[in-house]
Specification:
The protein is α/β, with parallel strands linked by helices and about 290 residues long. The protein is built from 9 helices and 8 strands. The protein is globular, with a radius of gyration of 19 Å.
Length: about 290
Amino acid sequence: MTIPQARSTCIDLHCHSRASDGKLSPRELVQRAGERGVTHLALTDHDTIDGLAEAGEAAAGTGVELITGIELSCVWKSHTIHVVGLDFDAGSPALIRVIAEQNENRWRRARTIAERLTRLKAPDLLDQAIKFADGDVPGRPHFAQALVAAGVVKDLNQAFKRHLGAGKPGDVKAFWPELGTVVDWVRNAGGLTVLAHPRKYKLTATRLRSLVDDFRRCGGNALEVVTSGQSSGDLGFLAELCRREGMLASQGSDFHFPGAPWCELGVIPAMPEGLTPIWQHFRTPVTTQVQSTA
């Protein structure tokens, strides 16, 4: 059975809501997606599925098909890598358990950063960073904002240069699981996995090929070949890599907030020819010709 299609189909399989580091609520995100012509949307918040229920309620009867999604952080050879999980069973007890563990890992890191910066005597630093993260787990940018607000530094650049940048006390490596572990989490919940925005990791071509090879070997399904804001050269490179490795291809805007025209819901270049889209392998496949809006 296939999803009933409109005359044109716009698929966005990577975006974020306020449930993680996006600026819109899940409901607002779905509404904006519909206004932007998105017909199939995956909400892929960082290490959480807390926004899916609200997004599902918002999508009902709107013409936007919501696909379960998440963006999981992991480690590959000391590099932090992001894996998008799609079309999984959001009610899987095992998945819910490991997501809770992942969230605790994020809080452990935040508490460690705060402890390392206690010498700065910034009052309630962790609480202030949480406020800048809108109640979510704060990262280094939120701690930088808190340091500026406390008058410890004059701006964000100085916060990183003195306290949060590479090699500084606040440079705490994330407590993420290995690449193969998060792939197994999604697979065991019946979903498919995508190596998110491969060119953003600033790996050499050789290292990226090695990452993709390891991802495929541990059961990874697809590469995010098409995403907002990437060059035509990167698009061509990823398309060829996808063909060479025999992987499925995915796409997504990686939308976080309104007002960034290079990163808007549904604004995605056309998928290169000769690739097999991941949505053809969903439990309810999407088979109609996809519309490019970039």
